[in-house]
Structures are given as structure tokens and as C-alpha cells.
Amino acid sequence: MRRYGGPFLLLLIGAAVLRVSLFGDLYLRYVQAGLRPYLIASGAALVLLALTTAALRPAHSHSHTHSHGGSRLAWLLTLPALALLLFPPPALGSYSAEREAARRAAQGVGTFPALPDGDPVTLTVAEYGSRAVYDSGRSLKGRTVRLTGFVTRDDDGTWYVTRLVVSCCAADATTAKAEIRNATAPPTDTWVTVTGTWHPKGTLGSPTAWPPVLDARTVTKIPEPTNPYEKP
To answer: CATH: 3.30.70, 1.20.120, 2.40.50, 3.90.1200. Which one for 96-221?
Structure first.
């Protein structure tokens, strides 16, 4: 059985990748939707490689295995693959958001394109933050906006609607958030949709304007979306 350790490990990893990418939307917890075909191809390639390796490996290839501790170490590597296959980790949440200092947008102060007609206007949390902190045209003034994200909070009770912004995969996630006022905070990590109006704060383009503030009118609890991340 030991001679199949390597192929078995490849098979587990390939099956785990296929499980999260081919049979549902779990892959969206880790990467952007456009990378799905590459995950499927990688998982299929690993499974095929495992089966081919097992079929071609000669029966005597396990000689002297009793003298090798490396085979036991190799079997330990199956644990992470089994965990991914059986218990996929959840999407990043408030813990990941709190580890990162407040992210500043790369742009300077300037005018932004006009918002669409009609209220409330749906914005990503990152879009709202950019307009609130950097828009010299004050395009948010007098508008009702709708933001969706999960709840994070400070020790003093201040709470935020928060999203993690992912360019490629969860490893490059950064944080966007908006402070919510005039509403009771749901439990941390609860997903909510908040409608409200922009509350001007601080000097435009300065650290005092961060994080942006929203005066809430409604706060509605929602299920976690299939894709929990925003694109930059």
C-alpha cells in the first residue's frame, strides 16, 4: 500500500480542487470567478497524474520502506488535502479585515463620474469609500445609497459594513469598510444590506476622512452571497 502514497496524495489534492471548483461555487471563497476553468483543469490534471502514476509504478518500488521515515511524513501531508476535501474553510471574514490597517485608496482628490439616476443607488463598499474620501465633486451629497457587506466592530462599539476586495485570490485581499451610524449593530460577521446617506467627515483626501460614514435608514440581514468578495 505504501507504494501508492504519492499517487494517493495527488488524488486527494486533485479531488479537493475539483470539489470546490467543479461541483458548486465554493471556489469563490478563494479566487475570482474567471479562474474557475484553470482550477478545474488543474484538478483534473492532478487526478489523471495520480491514476497514471499508480498504474505505472512497479510493485517492487517500495523496497526498504521500513528504513524510510519520509513515507510517514508524506502521509501526514494528506491531512490538509483531506480537510479541504471534507471541510472547506469559510470565506475570509472580520478577523482578516481587522488584521489590516485602514486601506487608503491610491488615487488623489478629484472628480468622479456622476452616479446613476434613482435612489437608492447600489455601490460597492470600496466605491462608496473612494467617493466619500476623495470626490471633490461631492457626488454622494443628497443621495441614498445601498451597501452590502459583513459586520465588523471596534472595542468601543463602533460598527462597520465591511467587504474584502480581491484582485486575484484570497491571498491578496484588502479591506473596504464604512462606519454605520443611527442603527443597532447586528452580531459580528452577520451579512447585511444597509441603505442610508453619506455623512461628511474630516478633510477631503486626508486620514481624518477615513473611514467613511453612512447614516443608516435601514439595516437588513441577508444570507452570505455566493461570491463574498468585491473586485477592485
So the answer is: 2.40.50
